[in-house]
Amino acid sequence: MNTDIIEGSWKQLAGEAQKQWGKLTNDQLAAVNGNRKSLAGLIQKNYGIVREDAENQVKEWEKSMKG
Questions:
Q1: Where are the domains of the chain?
Q2: Prediction pTM value
Q3: Cα 16-22-25 angle, rounded to 5 deg
Q4: H/E segment holding residue 1
Q5: Cα–Cα distance between 41 and 36 in angstroms, integer?
């Protein structure tokens, strides 16, 4: 899924992100506003994982959203 699609559809995708990463709050997801790097940063912070792992999780999640 390309970045423009994620940013353009973020309101719908935020709910799916909440299901995937339950530790992220609605306010945090709203602040991300579809920005991939911000999402990876929040995952890294909230789950205590390295940046590369967080980015890989976001990539895999994006692939699953293609549907």
A1: 3-65
A2: 0.85
A3: 90
A4: none
A5: 9
> What gap in Å lies between CA 11 and CA 14, rounded to an integer?
5
Q: What's the CATH number of domain 3-65, 1.10.760.10, 1.10.1470.10, 3.40.140.10, 2.60.40.10?
A: 1.10.1470.10
Q: Which residues contact 55 (CB under 8 A, 6 or more apart)?
A: 40
- Using an 8 Å Cβ cutoff, are 4 and 11 in contact? no
Q: Which stretches of the chain score pLDDT less than 70?
A: 1-8, 67
* Lookup: tokens for 1: 């899924």
Structure tokens at 66: 């293609």
Question: Would you tell me how many other CB atoms lie within 10 Å of the CB of residue 11?
Answer: 11
Residue type, 39: L
Token look-up 């789950």 returns 47
